[in-house]
Amino acid sequence: MDIAFVSNVVYPFVTGGAEKRIHEIGTRLADDGHDITIYGRHFWDGPKEMPFKGMTLRAVSPERELYTGENGQRSITEALEFAKDVIVPLRRHLDEHDVVIASVFPYFPVLATELSTLGSDTPIIVTWHEVWTSYWEDYLGYLAPFGKLTEYLTAHVPQYPIAVSEVTAGRLARIGPDRDRIRTVPNGIDYEQIRNTAPADQGFDVLFAGRLIEDKRVDILLEAFDRVASADVSLGIIGDGPKRGELEVQARGLENADRITFMGFLEEYEDVLAHMRAADVFASPSTREGFGLTYAEAMAADCTVIGADHPDSAADEVIGDGGFLAEPTVADVAAVLERTLGDDRSPINPQRRAKAFDWDHVAEEALEAYTAAITEEW
User: How many domains does the chain have?
Assistant: First the structure.
């Protein structure tokens, strides 16, 4: 099978969930003899087109900054530029590919992929990592109607839709394809890599890892930790984002401020894993998770995981009976933290739950979906 992925950013040259998914699935399918091409921006050193880990990288647009503004929002002009640049090269090589896969976010490359395939029989699969609907108002403010319209149009173009969770599939069905047309193929983890990572020498009892934005509700975690922390318990915060300064100010005002450390963004993924391996509890009361990859990673690292029980979060799908859910309030997160720090563990070994999300299994599910689109047996 000849498979093309359209992604403005390419892992590991840019690190993020969507591009890592493409990399992990792509390399595994390439190892199994499939031809994999990634159309992206030229973030790597070397020629515009080159082999990489069994795949072909094809740059159709130059390297460019992805985020803009004080709030760290994704650049709209960047997405538009890449969408414009990918149309002709993809069309020129379209006959080489059996299927084309584009990801949300961003939306414009998906629409450009549709333009590239007009009049052809090559199926397009769209991987939906999130569906925002009303969240656009928080993200774009007065420009929210533009975001909503773009999302709606993307949901209605001809496609074979894949959602990364049942929560995301349900949201997508409310604005576009029928629910029975949407396949669910989760994101994944490299289980053995996590298990083989040595714990950090100086770890933390409680750990958070993620982008420091409003929805992650790190403010709740800080207050909850302060309520239950004893003199020998520590909290580590991995990540950066527009809320970091505000959260650091909040932490400095807490009674247990000296037990809290902001580590910022860690360049090496292995360093994040090492801290997960050293932690006892991983807590992320995030109220919006299209999937929630860090929960699976932390369970594989043998952490007791705490997520938020919220309708906009897929935490319950990922954690299952391998950890705990808390209402996204200071009181409830504090109560669950106190239980877990007191050695109250979940009913099963969290590693067993995490192993179901290993990339080998996810790649198999993805290949089944790609085959179904090609054979029209979706």
Answer: 2
Residues 199 and 234 in one domain: yes
Under a CB-based contact definition with an 8 Å cutoff, are residues 188 and 127 in contact?
Answer: no
* Same domain (yes/no): 132, 202: no
Give me the DSSP letters along 12-58: TTS--HHHHHHHHHHHHHHHTT-EEEEEEEE-SSS-SEEEETTEEEE
Which domain CATH number covers 322? 3.40.50.2000
Q: How far is CA 342 from its chain centroid? A: 31
**Lateral strand order in the sheet of 304-308:** 260-264, 235-238, 206-209, 281-284, 304-308, 324-326
Mean pLDDT in residue range 82-103: 97
Q: Residue 331 and residue 289: Cα distance in Å, rounded?
A: 21
| Residue 377 CB contacts under 8 Å (≥ 6 apart), including other chains | 371
Q: What percent of the chain has pLDDT over 90?
A: 87
Strand 73-74 with 99-104, pairing = unpaired
> Once rounded to an integer, what is the mean pLDDT over residues 268-277?
96
Instruction: Provide the token pair at 370.
Output: 């790609």
E-assigned strands of 63-203?
67-68, 73-74, 99-104, 124-128, 160-163, 183-184
Taking residues 95-113, report their average pLDDT: 94
Whether residue 322 sits in one domain with residue 282: yes
Q: How far apart are CA 296 and CA 195, in angstroms?
A: 12
* Domain match, 184 and 237 both: no
Domain extent, residue 161, equals 2-188+358-374
**Residue 75 contacts residue 83 (beta carbons within 8 Å):** no
**Residues 6 or more apart whose Cβ sits within 8 Å of residue 161:** 125, 126, 128, 155, 172, 176, 177, 181, 182, 183
